[in-house]
Design goal:
Length: 206
């Protein structure tokens, strides 16, 4: 199989840089983004499958649902997806942010979890929160100096919610953990579907 990863990454970084420009002109974190222009839409990157880089993985149902939301509802979903990426993977590189975002959206699409990003991120059960940062007792605010970092995550979050194709680098994972910080019982004996940065991802946890 020919190696297209370098080309995809270069195109992806160029698209991301071009698309980020209007977002860097926002005011404080949480300001409503302007809708991208037609030119900006054209440079949004698209992820392709490893097997065939001309065959995008379609997600029409999720994308259609997001486009039918009101502006406020859509921005709220973008905010919660970016916030989850920030608290779960701010120490990772871009692929680490992407992987956390993909797991979050895989849960939104699954019948086993709520059907909105906000509900998935804030979900709790008898054992606590699905994402530990949400109920760890610490501030959930964006750290001073991380505003630009968070705006980049908001750009990625909107792309994930509204574009119609992507390469799921987690291979459909619904679970993950930071191997530097934990060794959860639920992962014992399970084979990870992917390792991205310090996180191990699993698509085989019942």
């Amino acid at each position: 199989m020919r190696n297209t990863s370098h080309t995809r990454r270069s195109d992806r970084e160029i698209a991301r840089a071009l698309f980020l420009v209007p977002f860097l002109m926002w005011g404080a974190v949480g300001c409503s983004p302007a809708r991208p222009t037609e030119a900006e839409e054209r440079v949004r990157f698209i992820y392709y499958t490893e097997e065939d880089d001309s065959a995008p993985v379609e997600r029409e149902e999720l994308v259609d649902r997001m486009r039918k939301l009101s502006t406020w509802e859509r921005q709220n979903e973008v905010y919660w997806l970016a916030l989850n990426m920030y608290h779960e993977a701010r120490g990772e590189d871009w692929d680490g942010w992407l992987a956390v975002g993909l797991v979050t959206l895989n849960r939104v699409k699954s019948d086993r979890y709520p059907d909105t990003v906000a509900a998935v991120v804030t979900q709790q059960n008898a054992r606590g929160c699905q994402f530990s940062w949400y109920c760890d007792g610490l501030s959930d605010a964006i750290d001073y100096g991380d505003e630009t970092l968070f705006r980049e995550m908001q750009v990625l979050a909107e792309e994930l919610l509204l574009q119609e194709a992507y390469d799921d680098i987690t291979l459909g994972a619904l679970h993950y953990y930071n191997a530097r910080k934990a060794n959860p019982r639920w992962a014992w004996g399970k084979v990870p579907s992917a390792q991205i940065g310090s996180h191990l991802f699993f698509n085989n946890v019942s």
